[in-house]
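Researcher: Structure for this, please.
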Amino acid sequence: MNKSKAVNPSGDFITATQAAESANIGIATAKKYAEQANAVVHIGRCYRIDRLKFLEYIANQN
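Model: Predicted structure, token format:
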């Protein structure tokens, strides 16, 4: 498998690991919040999270 060399943590669609790191939470929790926010995007077999929707959802949790 070829790993992408273009890693952009401030891109529109981020990985679950990048989402967890940006919100300072665990990966499983990041995936759960992303699903609740309807921020999950599947690009082929890749699981990506819409960064803006995800962070907005977390900000509105309080």
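Researcher: Any notable elements?
Model: Helices lie at 16-23, 27-36, 51-59. The longest helix spans residues 27-36.
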